[in-house]
Each structure stands twice: as C-alpha cells, then as structure tokens.
Amino acid sequence: MLRYLLRRLAIAVPMLIVASFAMFMLVSLSGDPLSRFRSMDPPPPESSIRSMELELGLDRPLPERYVRWLLGVLHGDFGKSVVNVDIGQVLPGRLLISLRLIVIAIVVAAIVSIAVGVIGAVRQYGLIDNSLSVLVFVGMSLPLFWFAVMLKQWAISINRSSGRTILYTIGDGSQTGAHGLALLGFLALPTIALAVNIFASWSRYVRASMIEVLNTDYMRLARAKGLSRTQAVLRHGLRNALMPFVTVVALEFSSLVGGAVVTESVFQWRGMGDLLLNGIRNLDVHVVMAWLLVFATATILLNLLADLVYGLLDPRIRHARTF
Amino acid sequence: MTSTENSTPVLAVPATSGRLRLPPVLRRYLRNPVSVAALIVFGLVLVFAFIGPLLWKYSYATFTPDNSRPPSLDHPFGTDSTGYDTLSQVMRGTQRSVQIALFVAVVATVLGSVVGAAAGYFGRLVDATLMRLVDLVLMFPSIAVAAVMAYVGRGSQTSWITIGLVLSALAWPIVARVVRSTVLVHASAEYVQAAKGLGASDAAIIARHLIPNASGTIMVAVTVLTSTAILSETALSYLGFGVQPPDTSLGLLVSEAQTALTTRPWVFYFPGAFIVLIALSASFIGDGLRMALDPRQAKGNR
C-alpha cells in the first residue's frame, strides 16, 4: 500500500509542475498587472512604478519569474502580491472559511444523495423513484447563483417575520467575530445552496450502482438466507454500491470548488473564492498560483483518500495492492 | 484539420447503411412521453431565441418609455428600471446562451471523439500520451482557468466565441475518455481486423467503423454537454467573466437583476427560469437517448 501511495505521488508531482507552469504562463501573459497604476490620474511618478516592477520581478524574463516563484514556494514563500497583501498570512484564514463551507456541504450532500439514490434504486420506476428522479433532474439544472439569491430573499422574509436575524445573507461571520454555534446562522444558506447543487449528480451515481448491486447473486443469496429486503440492502448492498461513489466525489471535486466559488461570491464571503476572483481581476499571478497550489494539493490528497477508502471498503483491492 | 475534412464524406456512408439500426432507437425514444416533451420544449426554446426577436415589437437594445413595469400585455415579462423590455432581453440572452452551449457541445464532442478514438484505436504510446493530456486538463480547476481565459478575451466583439472556446477546451477530455473506452472494445473486433486486411486506412477505419459504433455514446455526450455548458456559461457571466455588456446572456441578466429582487422580481425570475428550462430539457433528452440506446438497462428491473 505504501509503495502504491508513493508511486501515485511520484506521478502527481511532475503533473503538478506542468500544470503550475501552464497556469503561471496563462496569467502572466494575460496582461500587465500594473496597468491600473499606469493609467491612474494624476499618474504616479515613473520611479515608483519602476520600483514596483523591480519588487514584483516584472523586469525579468518569464521563465526566470516562474523558476523564482517555484523555488520560493519550496521555501514557503508564495511571492509578492500586486495589491500588497502577504499571501502566506491571509491564506490559512481564507482556507478555513472555505473549508468550513465545502466540508459541511460535502457531508450534507453525501447523506442526502445516498438516501435518495438508494431509495430510488430499491423502488426503481415506482412512484417514489420517478418523483425523486424529477427532483434530481431539476436539482441538476438549477443554476447555483440563481437558487442562492432566491434563498437569500427567502431568508430575509423569515428574518423579517420573526423580528430578528436568524439567517445571515451576507458575510462569512469572521468580520463580526462570530464563532461556534453562532456561525451556523452564517453557514446555513450557503451550505444549502452548495449541497443542492452537488447532491443531484451524486445521487444518480449512487442509484445506478445500487441498481447494479441489487441484481447480483449475493444479494439474492442474502434474501434467500432470510434477511429482509431492508437488511440485505443495508448490510450487503450499501457497502458495494458506495464504492464508485467514493471516486465520484474525488472526480467531481473541480466542479464542487467551482460551485463553492460562486456560492462565496453570492453571499459575499471573504474565502478562497474571493481571493481567486480578485486575483484574476488584478492579474495577480502569485495570488492565483497560491490558490492553484491549494486546489491541486487538495485534489491529490482527495484522490489518495479515495484509493484508501476503496481499499477499506473492498478487501480484494486491499490485498491485491500490497504486492 | 485534414482528417476531419476527409471524414465528412466517409461518415455519410454508414448513415445510409445504418438505417437498419436507427429506427428502433428512434421508436424507443419516441415511445417515452417525457423524452418527447423535452425535445418539444427544447425546440420551442430555439424558436423563442432565434425567431422570436424577429417577430417581437421591441428590440433588446431599445429603451421603451415604461420603467419598472410589472408583466402586462404590452410587456409580457415586464420592463427593467432603464425601460428595457424584459421579454426581448430574455430572448437575446437565451440566444447567446444557447449559441454558446451548442457551440461547446459540438466543438468539445468533435475534439473529444477524435482524440478518444485515436487513443483507443492506436493504443500504446499514442494512447498513453493522449490520456496523460486528458488527465492534465482534467486536473485544472475549471473555474479558475475559465475565468482567467474569459477575462483576457473580454471586450471583443466575438466574446461569445471566446467563452465557447474556453469552455470547450475544458470539456473535451470527458468526451475523449468515454469515446476511448467504447472504441477500445471495438478496436480488436474481427470486423475491424477484416477491414484492415482489406487494406482500409487507419483514418477510414476510425471514421467508418469506430466512430459510428460509438455514436450512441457521442450523442448522449452532446446533450449532457449542452446542459452543463449552459450552466457554466451563465455562472461565468454571473461572476462577470463571461458575456459582457452591451451584449447579454441569461447569467448576466440574473446578475443585473439580483439587487432588485424585491422591487422588480420579474426581471430576476424570467431569465433564471429559462436557464432551468434549457438545462432541464437537454438533460431529459440525454436521458431518453440513453434509455433508447440501451433498452436492457432501462427495463432491467421493472
């Protein structure tokens, strides 16, 4: 297993370098990050622009800039930002804010999608399955930003009718110093929005693999030896049906992060999404790269985790891979 | 470039000889009322977006004297605060959004099919190289890449094509993977060996045998891509990285209307509802196609 993990990491590192190089070039070649300062009125003195260029390393050729960034990152230095924030310092706070949203949304979406998928499979083409399918299809077609704005509107009317603010529609709560349970008021709406956005496609996977499992011989055997349908599904079916689901969660991580960025934008959170979007607007290459590094690391870890969980759920794979 | 030019006339041949295969699929598709309804709705949306603006009395760019009017006979979808007629705005936005979605579906499917078929057919080094490329593209966070690329291409007259190209560049690997796995099954089949023995070229085998055999998978991919592309495009436009004013898209309309939700809800609800309508009908068409192509799975446990 350890050797397998090491081999996976050995493939991931060169891929990461190629990806970061491509991204670095893409952002750097998109334009001049100092154009805002150049077009200021009255124009700032030539010398201060020159010194900013020196500080950001813009006077050097592109490949050199990339290598310097890469070496810096290896030493824990994320590089200079155009808007003068210390990237290394803001990153942990931003990450915490976004992780809170993403992790809770994943848990909620997983529970709902497993329930919906299993019920749909057991009652395939029955009334329940068909109504759940329609619900799931609507969920898949619902634009996240549109739904999130509607949630906000709905929360405002709830707050108004109850006379106090139960559900917050703006901010992540860190500015007001909320912590612990008080954060739930800030978290509720964004989590619902994101979870609704992702549970739909996940539940289709669960349903499909559950239908497959229900037709297997071992499920028939479980019924034959006297287990009730529910017992058989929960004890033997679920574990096998959830295996592909684990990889789906890892595979769809990119679209999940996309959804989180949109959600943060609707609710005006100052998390990783805000960092990325502002980084792009300012052509702030080091900020975008820092975001990319966090994203890529999370993706790699998630895929490794998926492999580990796979091994736990299926002993055959666990044994096959030790050799 | 040359391979696609070559393949067009060749592809036309199996279409006629494949007539034996097509009707059962079509018949199964048409037997499902939901699929038929989805197809009709999608057709109506196309008529609304492309023919509607020619017939409707207001253009999306004209100011009417009525500001912030709720829906009425004169303005079925109401007007916004500057006096734009929301119906004509939604028509224009739907046109742009559908244009981009279909563009992405076609470009990504063609590119993904060619790459996937080549990888599955040639195998070995070609397969390994192409699939690493697929892995690499899939590793990128699509939202970041799309936003950067769209931000660079903003402001130009052809910005909708830029967004279409950006989304296609991110979407083709998924098609490539699916087509590759279908082609892998057929690449070693005896009829392919026979074609090879008769002296058919690689390009001809891919175009005449392998792609037609994967056509079911490819057709489903087109519909799924249409649905996801419209959601990605509207999300990008909502964030300000997509279609730019004075042009408009459904995402941009929602974004402009979100602050006025209490005072002018119609400006917010209509464009959003159209996004749902398009994405929903596209995914129901895809689902119907899948069931029609694989009746075993559809009826399995009835």
Automatic annotation (TrEMBL), chain A:
Membrane topology: Multi-pass membrane protein
Subcellular location: Cell membrane
UniProt cross-references to PROSITE patterns, sorted A to Z: ABC_TM1 (PS50928)
Pfam families xref list: BPD_transp_1, BPD_transp_1_N
Domain ABC transmembrane type-1: 95-306
Entry keyword set: Cell membrane, Membrane, Transmembrane, Transmembrane helix, Transport
Gene3D superfamilies reported in the protein's UniProt record: MetI-like
Membrane-spanning segments: 9-30, 101-122, 134-156, 176-200, 245-269, 289-313
Matching InterPro entries: BPD_transp_1_N, MetI-like, MetI-like_sf
Chief localisation class: membrane
Family as reported in the entry's similarity comment: Belongs to the binding-protein-dependent transport system permease family.
Alphabetized PANTHER family for the sequence: DIPEPTIDE TRANSPORT SYSTEM PERMEASE PROTEIN DPPB-RELATED (PTHR43163:SF6)
Protein name: ABC transporter permease
Organism: Kribbella hippodromi
TrEMBL record, chain B:
Primary location: membrane
Membrane-topology descriptor: Multi-pass membrane protein
Sequence intervals crossing the membrane: 36-56, 100-121, 133-153, 159-179, 218-241, 266-286
InterPro entries for the chain: BP-dependent_transpt_permease, MetI-like, MetI-like_sf, OppC_N
Positions of the ABC transmembrane type-1 domain: 98-286
UniProt keyword annotations, A-Z: Cell inner membrane, Cell membrane, Membrane, Peptide transport, Protein transport, Transmembrane, Transmembrane helix, Transport
Alphabetical list of Pfam families matching this protein: BPD_transp_1, OppC_N
Highest taxon above the source species: Bacteria
CDD domains for this protein: TM_PBP2
Residues spanning the signal sequence: none
Places the protein is found: Cell inner membrane; Cell membrane
Family: Belongs to the binding-protein-dependent transport system permease family. OppBC subfamily.
PANTHER family cross-referenced by the UniProt entry: OLIGOPEPTIDE TRANSPORT SYSTEM PERMEASE PROTEIN APPC (PTHR43386), OLIGOPEPTIDE TRANSPORT SYSTEM PERMEASE PROTEIN OPPC (PTHR43386:SF2)
The protein, known as: Oligopeptide transport system permease protein OppC
